[in-house]
Amino acid sequence: MRLDKFLKVSRIIKRRTVAKEACDKGIVTINGKQAKSSSEVNMGDVLEITFGEKIMKFKITEIKEHVLKAEAKEMYEIIE
To answer: Coiled-coil segments, which residues (predicted)?
Structure first.
């Protein structure tokens, strides 16, 4: 699944266009490498997103095309 779509479906970022902009600005990394919005994500990958001065790390535990709001948090695990 594309990174921008995963961020939207998992509701880490609310809109796909905002997720794409975040990737283009270089604030999203996959396994320590700067990621493009078109980068593929897999289960077990670690995403790092910089929100202002706060850095959040997520481990992908599940990938689904469509998910309900209540189930979205099951797609990732917050590491930091």
So the answer is: none
